[in-house]
Design a protein that fits this description.
mainly alpha, 126 residues
Length: 126
């Protein structure tokens, strides 16, 4: 909890020019006029701090769950002709249309790539 409070104090001081988050029982000290860009910067910083503090492995272990992660590099392993954006589209399509019986595997990635972008180019020189 201390880390979170320290992070929030730092964000308030840096982005909002608020020296402390303690209540000081004075309107002039406890209420502040802020710019929208300052608030946006503070919210961005808080969001980034929260995202960086997530330990997905610990969360999954606590819930007795596992997660298998596929990336664009995996798609490009079976379809090296695809761009990063195309590979991302393949992953999204595979996720939206996955069959619980099959899951996502090399074959399903290749199938989704073919459905979206046609057959892989023939690289044989024959």
């Amino acid at each position: 909890m201390t880390n979170r409070r320290q992070t929030l104090r730092h964000i308030a001081k840096r982005h909002l020019s608020i020296p402390t988050l303690r209540t000081r029982s004075s309107d002039s000290l406890d209420f502040h006029t802020l710019s929208v860009w300052g608030v946006a910067a503070a919210l961005d910083a808080a969001f980034d701090a929260g995202r960086q503090s997530v330990d997905i492995d610990a969360i999954l272990a606590e819930r007795h769950q596992i997660a298998l992660i596929w990336g664009i590099e995996d798609v490009q392993e079976v379809r090296p002709d695809l761009t990063d954006e195309q590979a991302w589209q393949v992953l999204q399509n595979a996720d939206r249309n996955r069959d619980a019986t099959l899951g996502i595997n090399w074959d399903t990635l290749e199938c989704h790539a073919e459905m979206l972008f046609g057959n892989a180019p023939d690289n044989s020189n024959a």
